[in-house]
Amino acid sequence: MGPRSRDQVAVPRVSRGILVAVTALLVGGGVLHVVGATRAGDGAWVASAAVGLALSLSTIIASLRAGRVGVDVIALVAVGGAVGVREDLAASVISVMLATGRALEEWAGARARDDLASLVRRVPTSAQRYHDGALESVALDAVRPGDRLLVPTGSVVPVDGSVASLRAVLDESALTGESLPVTRGSGERVASGVVNAGAPFEVLVLAPAAESTYAQIVRLVEGAEATPAPFVRLADRFAVAFVAVTAGAAGAAWWAAGPTRAVAVLVVATPCPMILAAPAAFVAGLSRAARRGIIVKSGAVLERLAGVRTLLIDKTGTLTQGRPEMVEVVAAPEWPADEVLALAASLDQVSPHVVAASIVRAALDRGATLVPPADVAESPGRGIRGRVGDQRVTVGSESFAPVDSPPAWARAARRRARREGALTVSVTVDGALVGLLVLADPPRPDAARTIRAMRQRGITRVVLVTGDRPDVAEGIGEVIGVDEVLAERTPAEKLDAVRRESQAAATVMVGDGINDAPALALADVGVAMGARGASAASEAADVVVAVDRLDRLDEALALARRTRAIAFESVAAGTGLSLVAMVVAGIGWLPAVAGAILQEGIDAAVILNALRAHRDGRGPSQLPHDASQLSQRFREEHRDIHVVLQELARAADALDVTDPSAALVVAGQVHRRLVAAVLPHEQAEEHELYPAMGRFLGGADPLSAMSRAHVEIAHRIGRLGGLLRDLEREDADAGDVVELRSMLYGLGAIIALHTAQEEESLLSLAEA
Q1: Which of 19, 202, 529, 640 could form a disulfide with 164 if both were Cys (CB 3.0 to 4.6 A apart)?
Q2: Mapped to the 3 state alphabet, what secondary structure does 660-692 carry?
């Protein structure tokens, strides 16, 4: 059975039956009184009151078994007292009120839990597996890594795997909250739990069903409500005080005007909104988090998260992408960079290594044509050799592909890479070094923006805790904006850091690896980036971010604080209104029947207010469809911009080693690339992307500073073209070379800065 829509969430059958019965007795008693059957009408109302007494008594017993004393004792006394003073109609109204409150509470919980339950209901039980060239339907437990499955259109992907077809179009909204379909190419990873939104495709199984992403999320969801939030227990303690206040007020009313007035006071104090509002708010908050791919394991965690002040965060896979990405191709002067990359990727396409996959992906992104290699021999973790066409190619570490007396350009590139914490891969052809591929684990585009947003929500201290080298960690820390960097930390030392910070303020630790698990367990709140992280980290954490986006961390913090505020607000408002009604009833201005109806309205109001935690209170949290599509398009185009930036840097560097006439040729080629690729891109952003993003961000011209950068880039490209035209008509001297080099470096710097700003502030908002 498919998941129900939110509008289909129903009141549980038993509560609905009780509500119908007591309402029928109330109405039936009224009808009997109208027709003159007074004794029979009173009997119907008393029967309704008996149901109310039974409801109150069952709830009191359940509370005592749980070690709590709730306000249902007031309901028991109010119903019994109303019958005792012959206020049979009031007793019947109170019973209807109690039955309605019970049904409303259970409906609220069911409605708020529906998003969590829908995850469990979507779990597939079988899969279509290829066996001897034919399809067979098998139980999900029978699927093993290496199996090849067919995922029909509209079906849930049953296990984690990689796309074995040309491409797959996926609806990942159940895991990520993003409504736009996502296209995954051949070899790309696909998570279990997403839906095939396109043509049928094949998937190569990477993990058993029990270890899949979706199975892990379902296990977390099933245990998410096992622990009541501390705020709920706090409400129970307030409830005891409220019982005492109510007893005192009822006693004073009895002393002043008799038992009928005391019953009127008890009626408006029954039941207390405290025991309804807090659970409804926290369950609604858990549900809202699950819809956004954030699995919070209990209401207690949600409340603790609302109070954190210090953020400790891991680097690799948390602040960074967690996988190598090629950032530069440094080629020998006589070799084109694209040819070096194509040779390396042609050889690496048969390697399962993660670095090889990054090299192949970079080559395909640049439009390279790969050819099948021959005579391949791989040394795991070191490199790979083989023939590409008629050339002997080696791709690997410096020790795997050694050369005598590395040239100056290679030594400079390796030094620069070491300073930036990047990895260099050597490419040799027929024994000669022809290029270096520079790979790095860059910061997530949304990392700095997320840290700034969390500071605005009350995080006062941010500490980067990592096992990486100090120079690499400090470089990332400067870009992200942290208060302290703790580098080269072992798991035990990470524990010490969490312990020290916890003495000063409530802490949240964020990580994704096995070495982070102890620190996640010790922190007040541990958050695991579970999209690609280790299962040990997810098990130790209190919160699991199931989507590969760091900005969900800020969403979780905002949601936790909003949920806690709504719970306090609902309890305070409901209790305050009840106290005012008690005073009015004690004076004698609010009869028992009217008081019961008023209290029913108060209860309904606080529950509905508590359910606001199910909605996002910050306005739209996702880009509109058009803006999201534009962001994804321009993010793809930025890959070409990064290639042009590398060409700019190489052209500027070449001015030191190339004669002026050859340098002008290289600079002219770069200028033509700027005119053909960069200028149209900047103009399209100005006229298409910025208006769409401006409508989403709001305010008066929110992107004016970035628009000014577009003007400056166009101006500098025009100046570069003018200088090159002047130098074509006359010989370039040393001063001209200095000016040209300065212009190339300056243009590269402003384009790089502007591109980084766009990726951080705008393009990272698209949830692809």
Answers
A1: 202
A2: HHHHHHHHHHHHHHHHHHHHHHHHHHHHHHHHH
- In this prediction, residue 649 carries a pLDDT of 82
Instruction: Say yes or no: 329 and 432 in one domain.
Output: yes
Assigned domain for 254 exists: yes
Q: Considering only CA atoms, which of 275, 267, 340, 152 is closest in space to residue 584? A: 267
How far apart CA 554 and CA 531 sit, in angstroms, is 16
Task: Say yes or no: 369 and 421 in one domain.
Answer: yes
Bridging pattern class, strands 126-131 and 383-388: unpaired
156-183 tens-digit pLDDT: 888 888 898 888 888 776 555 454 567 7
CATH number at residue 749: 1.20.120.520
Alpha helices (H) along 510-550? 517-522, 535-540
Write out pLDDT tens, residues 471-524.
778 888 888 889 999 988 887 888 899 999 999 999 999 987 666 778 888 889
CB 231 within 8 A of CB 278: yes
Helix (H) or strand (E) holding 190: strand 189-190
What pLDDT is stored for residue 7 in this prediction? 40
Does the pLDDT at position 449 exceed 60?
A: yes
Helix runs in 66-143, H state only: 72-84, 88-121
CA–CA dist 93, 595 (Å, integer): 10
As a whole-number percent, the residues of the chain with pLDDT over 90 amount to: 16
Q: Are residues 108 and 184 in the same domain?
A: no
Can you read off the two tokens belonging to residue 442?
């860059």
H/E stretch holding 452 reads helix 447-456
610, 748 in Cβ contact below 8 A? no
pLDDT at residue number 454: 92
Regarding whether 50 and 12 lie in a shared domain, the answer is yes
Task: Say yes or no: 643 and 746 in one domain.
Answer: yes
Count the helix, strand and coil residues of the chain and give each as a percent rounded to the nearest 5: 60, 15, 25
CA 586 and chain centroid, separation: 51
Q: Which CATH number covers residue 157?
A: 2.70.150.10
Does the pLDDT of residue 249 top 70, yes or no?
yes
pLDDT of 2 > 50? The answer is no
pLDDT of residue 69: 60
Cβ contact 221:193 at 8 Å: no
Question: For residue 674, is it within any domain?
Answer: yes
**Beta strands 325-331 and 484-486, pairing class:** unpaired
pLDDT bin (cut points 50, 70, 90) of residue 231 is low
Q: Are residues 660 and 760 in the same domain?
A: yes
Q: What is the mean pLDDT of the chain?
A: 81
| DSSP secondary structure code for residue 370 in this structure | P
C-alpha–C-alpha distance, residues 757 and 634, integer Å: 13
Active site residues: 314
pLDDT grade for 224, boundaries at 50, 70 and 90 = very low
Q: Which two tokens stand for residue 564?
A: 């806690």
Instruction: State how far the Cα of 690 lies from the Cα of 766, in Å rounded to an integer.
Output: 14
What count of other Cβ atoms lies within 10 Å of the Cβ of residue 706? 18
Query: Looking at the structure, do residues 140 and 217 belong to the same domain, yes or no?
Result: yes
Asked if 430 contacts 391 with a C-beta cutoff of 8 angstroms, the reply is yes
Check whether residue 98 and residue 238 sit in a common domain.
Answer: yes
Q: Is residue 310 part of a domain?
A: no
List the domain range (segments joined by +) for residue 371: 325-440
pLDDT reported for residue 112: 47
pTM of this prediction?
A: 0.69
End-to-end CA gap in the chain: 29
Q: Is 684 domain-assigned? A: yes
Token pair for residue 557? 């913090």
Task: Write the single-letter amino acid at 693.
Answer: M
**Number of separate domains in the chain:** 4
Cβ–Cβ under 8 Å, residues 308 and 571? no
For the record, the structure tokens of 112 come out as: 């708020």
- CATH code (residue 380): 3.40.1110.10
Task: From 440, 471, 496, give the residue that closes a domain.
Answer: 440
